[in-house]
Amino acid sequence: MAIYGYARVSTRDQSTDMQVNRLLEAGIPKERIFMDVISGATEDRPQLNSLLSLLHKGDVLTVWKVDRLGRRTAHLARLLEEFDQKGITVRSLTEGVDTSDRSSRVSYLLMSVIAQNERETINERIRSGIDHAQKYGTKTGRPIGRPKASSAKVQHALDLLASGKSYRHASSIAGVSLATLVRRVQAMQQKNQFTRQTSIFEALKQEAC
């Protein structure tokens, strides 16, 4: 009887280190641990295929969790049937599954259902996120940047400034931020479109008050 381990992560941004360490702690030799970096929905996995070709009757395949073997109930059920036919035992360190025990096979199948449900839930969230993002035109679904002050509010603030109101007073009455108002005045002054002779230092001093 030989004991093997299998670890899998979905992307290269993830690491198999934690799974491998758990397998090593369970007494599995490092040279008998196989690792894939591939989605659990993909049934054709190079390292898993290599491992399956080595397994013989009486061997034990150990995983951190059942869903490391796959994320689809049908696929996991086929693997269980194949393992049963070959006399191979599957053990899960996290769920305590040991398919050499009949009742534990039920747990294996239950874990496979949970694995697929989790995947479908994740996919549903991703689809919802994409739909939301398309609606708002961003990857996250959130509007880009802070809400912009309306041109009418900014113009109102400029009119108040031109009438002699302070920056703070104008921004407060018009409902625009002091920083937005200062930036707009600076831009207009550069184009000689705003004549009120109030320095930027005055505005900053008013903000600090």
Summarize the structure.
The protein is built from eight helices and four strands. The protein is an alpha/beta fold. It is rod-shaped, with a radius of gyration of 32 Å.
Q: How are the secondary structure elements laid out?
A:
Layout: E1 3-9, H1 17-25, E2 33-37, H2 46-54, E3 60-63, H3 73-86, E4 89-92, H4 102-136, H5 151-162, H6 167-174, H7 178-190, H8 200-208
Helix pairs in contact: 3-4, 5-6
* Biggest sheet statistics: 4 strands, parallel
Low-confidence runs: 197-209
Q: Could you give the order of strands across the largest sheet?
A: 2-1-3-4
Would you count the extended β strands for me?
4
- How far the N terminus sits from the C terminus, by CA atoms, comes to 80 Å
Radius of gyration: 32 Å
- Give the helix/strand class: alpha/beta
Beta-strand percentage?
A: 5-15%
Mean pLDDT: 77
User: What is the number of helical segments per DSSP (H or I, 4+ residues)?
Assistant: 8
SSE pattern, N- to C-terminal: EHEHEHEHHHHH
The percentage helix is: 40-55%
Silhouette:
rod-shaped
Give an overview in words.
The chain has about 210 residues and is of the alpha/beta class. Helices cover about 50% and strands about 10% of the residues. It is built from eight helices and four strands. The protein has helices at about 15-25, 45-55, 75-85, 100-135, 150-160, 165-175, 180-190, 200-209; strands at about 5-10, 35, 60-65, 90. The chain has a four-stranded parallel β-sheet with strand order 2-1-3-4, sandwiched between helices. Helix 3 runs antiparallel to helix 4 and helix 5 (about 150-160) packs antiparallel against helix 6. The longest helix is centred in the middle third of the chain and has 35 residues, at about 100-135. The relative contact order is 0.08.
